Records
---
Amino acid sequence: MHDVAAAPTSNRTFGQIEFYAFCVISFAGKSMLLIRLPYREWPVNTFYTCSLLLFFYLYFRFRQKLAAPAFVIFSLAAAVAVDILGNKLGLYGNPFGPLRDYDEFAHFAGSGFSAIAAFWLLRAGTRRMGFQLSRGVLAFLSTNVAFTYCGWYEILELWDELFYGDFVRIHTWDDTANDLFYDFLGVIVFIAAAALFFALTERSRGKTCALIAVRLKNLFSALPGDALAFFVATTMFGLCSWFEIFRMFDQRWSGRIHLVGNRDSATYLQYELAGSIALALGYVVARKLAGRRVLST
């Protein structure tokens, strides 16, 4: 595994556009994989997953000059394999160890494995931009990014039912919020393990390149506006996802009714995501307007 250095200033604009295009394509491709994942034959899902992993590896290896460690590629494959194996072996709907259903384990492990890739990508990507996030900031932001994708998956399940309508993806009133709870537990555990691993490797290797140190106190002044907007959106949506979890536990423990239909939480999530994105875009606009005022004075 190689440390990453800051990218040269030449061709930076083209590189940003290319990176944004890659993000859109890979995000759409992964979403299309997930939206019908439980109801495809496993060879189709395997081929689809391998194609996405190859696309991911080739882009970072040859366009960004970043060699993804083998365990990152394995983690991305394992995140999908947990679900494929559960369907293939008929584990869903049955207790799994101390858990009441294999689905809870699948969300814990699948989200956890995905979080490892999010941690590495955020660490490598920011270093490629010339920034070195502190361990706390890196863990916090990567948790938000990974947990946001968990919430997005729950929205995809809703859209699967609404726009395809041939399968049931959300089975009970607490299905979505319960999935999010085990998603979050998996993200926390796996990111803690990833943070420990990289901390040990950095301690033995030492600093190899000069990067701008980013701590919580200079986070908003150090990072570029587009990155900050992304982190604002993921943080806000993560808080909204936790709000759905709190409502589930409150209904279970106190009997107060917050959620009635099976799709209630997922329906709220899609609007909360839209609101989080709007807030992030508003932050970008406000930041640019403030910058122009400073230049004009």
Note: The mean pLDDT is 87.
---
Amino acid sequence: MKKFDELTEREVLALAIALEEEDERVYADFADGLRQDYPASASMFEAMREEESEHRRRLIELFRAKFGEHIPLIRRGDVRGFVHRPALWLTRPLRIDAVRKEASTMEAETRLFYEKASHRTQDASMRQLLDDLINEERSHEHRAQQLDEGMPADVRADEDKAQRRLFVLQIVQPGLAGLMDGSVSTLAPVFAAAFATHNTYDAFLVGLAASAGAGISMGFAEALSDDGSLTGRGHPWVRGLICGAMTAIGGIGHTLPFLLRDFRVALWAAGAVVCAELGVITWISAALQVGLGGVLVFLTGVLIGSA
């Protein structure tokens, strides 16, 4: 790996060509990943891709004029000082805020590279081109930073709506599904153990085990249901983690009262929590069947524990 100061003018120009090619491809991936949900931002990145392509063409013309046809292979990873770029463009769906931040960082890094290269070169034509590219990269950097402010109000409203829709699809829905499942499915084992043993600590342990088991099961079920590539539901393991955690929380809610030593007090407290849980779930889901199902599961646990 070379230091930047060790590069020859030929290598600096070859590296500039490689950087512009990489930025062009990254912007193409950004545009492709944003096109469905954020068409206005996708159009902007497509325009930036075309400008990066023009930068590369101008750099190649200068390289041919000065050094001939062969362009040596030198990449950002071959030179010390460049920041490692996470492969954000490979993730689907793309997060619009992260993309804008990454684009601004890319342009700032490329501009600093051109500024340093311009100070080093003694060739007038090369310095002129690098200075022109500095101004253009600064324009790109400003465009990425000001994308939110410069976007028309109706377009910004559409993109905000799309972002909220994705948040609901990727975070709220798996979390709500897990909370509902955990609140309902763990009722039977917790109350069966409580009525069978009349021991609050035993009931607590059963509830804790049932909540953890349900969380693991629901987490894997959600993660393996689909990879999100066609549904837009996001990374499967993120969804699985959210769903599993909320499932466990749903079960622990009516399990915690059994930490109380007095059995009757713990039972009434747990019953109150169950009523609150089922009421909230019925209200959120707008489905009476969910609340009715929870009542049936609760009664099942009471009957089995009392047998």
Note: DSSP finds eleven helices and no strands in the chain.
